[in-house]
Amino acid sequence: MSEGGARDDLDLAPLHALLEPYGVLVGARRIRTGDEAAFAFPGPATAANLARRRASGAARVAARLLLSELGADPFAPLPRAPSGAPVWPEGIVGSLAHDETFAVAAAARGGRLAGLGIDVEPAEPLPEEVVGLVLSVAEQRETAADGRAQRLVFVAKEAVYKAMHPLDGSWLDFPDIEVRLAEGTATLRDGRRLKLFAFAGERLVAIALVFGPETG
After folding, report:
1. The whole model's pTM is what?
2. How far, CA to CA in Å, does 175 sit from each of 4, 56, 114, 148, 200?
């Protein structure tokens, strides 16, 4: 536990159970002072950059624990590629994300999975003024004006982007992704489909999986 009795991590047990058959591990960490030391790419000496480094460092702390569980290098630097995505050790696919309070990571051995993406947001309603920009008519119908469910669709689409962009450089916008929370799927405009896991707890977390050509 951290100061004040707040949890240092998130209870992601339901996600752990759902992801286990796919060999995907997921972890979370509350962002705290000193986590910036885990991200050794400093950039400008500004308060805003320190906050970003701290959050990025917290995500890497969580990721390195997962790498250890996978039998990979637990000290991997995980630098940023030009795309902004982390560079994982050979044979590993993974993704990092954070909001202002928590950082999350997901990782798996490559092979069956070509890629994955994760995103996290506070468990709060999506602002009404952006609902029409993020959700299609069908997605709005499925979420039935439930603001948290609408935000979960947003989180899912961010996870899909993080899964796809490192693979082929796809610049996906919200209308390019159709999410079905009940089905656990996300379909791209070109017909490609991803497996989706969405979880609403203390935080909203979504993980998107891209399968390799032999297992798709």
Report:
1. 0.93
2. 42, 28, 23, 19, 23
Q: How confident is the model at residue 8 (pLDDT cuts 50, 70, 90)?
A: confident
* 9 within a domain of the structure (yes/no): yes
Determine, yes or no, domain membership for 216.
no
3-class secondary structure per residue, the chain: CCHHHCCCCCCCHHHHHHHHHHCEEEEEEECCCCHHHHCCCCCCCCHHHHHHHHHHHHHHHHHHHHHHHCCCCCCCCCCECCCCCECCCCCEEEEEEECCCEEEEEEEEECCEEEEEEEEEECCCCCHHHHHHHCCHHHHHHHCCCHHHHHHHHHHHHHHHHHHHHHHCCCCCHHHEEEECCCCEEEECCCCEEEEEEEECCEEEEEEEEECCCCC
- How many domains would you assign to the chain? 1
Q: Identify whether 101 is part of a domain.
A: yes
- Cα–Cα distance, 143 to 140 (Å, whole number): 5
Q: Specify the CATH number for the domain of residue 10.
A: 3.90.470.20
Total Cβ atoms within 10 A of residue 42: 10
Please give the residue range of the domain that contains residue 133.
3-211
Q: What is the pLDDT of residues 172-189, one digit of tens each?
A: 999 999 999 999 999 999
